[in-house]
Write a structure and sequence with these properties.
CATH class of the largest domain: Alpha Beta
Number of domains: 4
Number of helices: 21
CATH topology of the largest domain: Rossmann fold
CATH superfamily of the largest domain: P-loop containing nucleotide triphosphate hydrolases
Strand order of the largest sheet: 2-3-4-1-5
Order of helices and strands: HEHHEHHHEHEHHEHHHHHHHHHHEHHEE
Largest sheet: 5 strands, parallel
CATH architecture of the largest domain: 3-Layer(aba) Sandwich
Radius of gyration: 23 Å
C-alpha cells in the first residue's frame, strides 16, 4: 500500500456506509458498478478502499486472500477493445509484481504480457488474461479487477466484449469479481451491448453520492495541511457549505485559496469569487451536459420550486439516485444551484458573447505559437490548467473549452480555425 497516496491515510470511518456495502459485495463474490455524477469522488473513495492497509480485515474480514487490481481506463490512449485487454493484462502483472507470490509466477505472467504485445493478437491477449487470473486462483488468491472510468469504453463495447468479461468469471469458477465505475449504469451506457436483464445477473449497481459533512470536513482538513493552507475555523464552515460534499468543487476551492494572498472576509465575497471562477463554471457545465433533456427539465423545475409530478420523478430518477437532488428536495451544492439559476435567466440572444475568457486566451496563445502543429492534450493541460496537473483534467473539460473557443473564432471572423486530431490533440490552421 502506497504511503504517497493521501487517501491511504484517511480514517477507517471514511465513507463507512459505502465501504461496508462494497466490502460485503466483494466478500460474497459479487461484481459491482459504482455509479455517480461526474467527479463526485468515486476515485477518491476507491483510492481509500484500494490502498488503506486495514480495508480488507475491516470491511471484508473473511479470512481469504483478496487481491485488488486497479485498472484506470484514463490510461488508454485509444478507447478500443485490444488496448483495453492489453492494459488489463499489464495492470495484473504490475499488481502481482508487488505481492509475495513466487518469482516463477511473477515471471510467467510478465512473459504473457510481453508476448501479447509482440503478437498483437486480441484473442491471445484475452486468453493470457484468463491464464493470469487462473494462476491467481490456483494460489488461493481472489482477484477483484477495478475498472475505473469504465464508461470510456461505451462507444467501442460489443456483445463479444461483454461475453469475454462474463467468460472470465466462468473460467475462474467465479473466484474473482469486478468493480466498474461509471457515470451511468451499464445498461444505460450501451443498452444494446449490456441489456438490463443480463446486467442484473452480471453486476449490481451501487450509487455513490456526494460525501457527508463529516467526510468532506476531514478531506478538507487533510488537504489543507498538505497544501500548507492556514484556514481559520470561522471560515471553514463557509468553504464546506459551498462545495457541500462534491470532491471536484473542493479541489478547485483549495486551488482558489492557495492562489489568493488574502482570504475572503465574508460569505458573499467567497461565494461571488467561487461562482466567477472559470474552473468551477466549467465543472458545473460538465455536470449539466451529463444529463439528458428530461433530467435537465426536472432539475430546473426543482430549482424554481415547482411541484414535481410522479412522471417527473420517474424520468429524473437518476437525479435522486446520484444525489443531484437531496432527500429534502434541494440541489446538492449552492455552486451548482447558482449555475442552474443562471441557466433559467439566460436570454435567447445572450449567446453571442465573443470576449475570450482567461482560459480561452491561454489556449489560443498556445495554439498560435504552434500554427499548423499539433498541440497534444497533455501540453494543453500543462499550459492552460497547470494548477490541475496533479489532479487531472477531464476530456470533457478540454473538448468543451476548445468548442467554445472554436465558436468564438467563427463569431470574430478569424482567419484561423481549430481542427481536432483524433486521440492526440488540436491544431490551429488557416481557414
Amino acid at each position: 500500500m502506497s504511503s504517497s497516496i493521501i487517501e491511504s491515510t484517511y480514517p477507517l470511518s471514511f465513507r463507512q456506509k459505502d465501504a461496508l456495502v462494497l466490502g460485503e459485495h466483494i466478500k460474497n463474490g459479487h461484481s459491482v458498478v459504482l455509479v455517480g455524477m461526474k467527479r463526485v469522488g468515486i476515485s477518491n473513495f476507491l483510492r481509500f478502499f484500494l490502498y488503506h492497509k486495514d480495508i480488507s480485515k475491516t470491511y471484508i474480514n473473511d479470512g481469504k486472500n483478496h487481491l485488488f487490481i486497479p485498472i484506470d481506463l484514463n490510461d488508454l490512449v485509444e478507447r478500443e477493445i485490444y488496448p483495453f485487454w492489453v492494459l488489463t493484462l499489464k495492470r495484473i502483472a504490475d499488481t502481482i509484481a508487488t505481492t509475495s507470490l513466487s518469482d516463477n509466477v511473477k515471471k510467467h505472467i510478465e512473459i504473457l504480457f510481453i508476448d501479447s504485445i509482440q503478437t498483437q493478437d486480441l484473442f491471445l491477449t484475452i486468453d493470457y488474461v484468463r491464464k493470469a487470473l487462473l494462476m491467481l486462483s490456483e494460489q488461493n488468491i481472489l482477484p477483484t479487477l477495478f475498472f475505473l472510468r469504465f464508461d470510456r469504453m461505451k462507444d467501442s463495447a460489443t456483445d463479444v466484449f461483454f461475453d469475454n468479461l462474463q467468460g472470465l468469471l466462468d473460467a475462474t469458477h467465479k473466484r474473482m469479481s469486478y468493480v466498474f465505475t461509471s457515470v451511468r449504469t451499464l445498461d444505460s451506457l450501451a443498452p444494446d451491448v449490456f441489456p438490463k436483464s443480463s446486467v442484473a445477473v452480471f453486476a449490481q449497481n451501487m450509487y455513490i453520492k456526494p460525501a457527508s459533512k463529516k467526510d468532506i470536513e476531514m478531506i478538507f482538513q487533510t488537504n489543507s495541511k498538505q497544501c500548507k493552507l492556514a484556514i481559520p475555523k470561522s471560515l471553514e464552515r463557509l468553504f464546506l457549505e459551498s462545495v457541500d460534499g462534491y470532491i471536484q468543487y473542493l479541489q478547485y476551492l483549495l486551488i482558489f485559496l492557495s492562489e489568493r494572498k488574502t482570504l475572503p472576509k465574508s460569505d458573499l465575497e467567497l461565494f461571488t469569487n467561487l461562482v466567477r471562477d472559470e474552473r468551477i463554471a466549467l465543472q458545473s457545465e460538465e455536470l449539466w451536459e451529463s444529463l439528458n433533456s428530461a433530467e435537465q427539465e426536472t432539475l430546473l423545475k426543482s430549482v424554481q420550486g415547482k411541484k414535481l409530478s410522479g412522471e417527473d420523478k420517474k424520468r429524473g430518477e437518476y437525479l435522486w439516485d446520484t444525489g443531484f437532488i437531496t432527500k429534502i428536495g434541494t440541489v446538492f451544492s449552492p455552486l451548482f444551484e447558482f449555475f442552474l439559476k443562471e441557466k433559467l435567466e439566460e436570454k435567447s440572444n445572450e449567446s453571442q458573447k465573443v470576449e475570450l475568457s482567461k482560459k480561452e486566451n491561454q489556449l489560443i496563445k498556445l495554439l498560435e505559437e504552434r500554427v499548423d502543429d499539433i498541440c497534444e492534450r497533455e501540453e494543453i493541460i500543462e499550459k492552460v490548467w497547470p494548477e490541475m496537473e496533479s489532479f487531472g483534467v477531464s476530456d470533457w473539460a478540454i473538448d468543451r473549452l476548445v468548442a467554445r473557443l472554436r465558436n468564438k473564432l467563427k463569431l470574430q471572423k478569424s482567419p484561423y480555425e481549430i481542427v481536432t486530431i483524433k486521440t492526440r490533440g488540436y491544431k490551429l490552421i488557416k481557414s
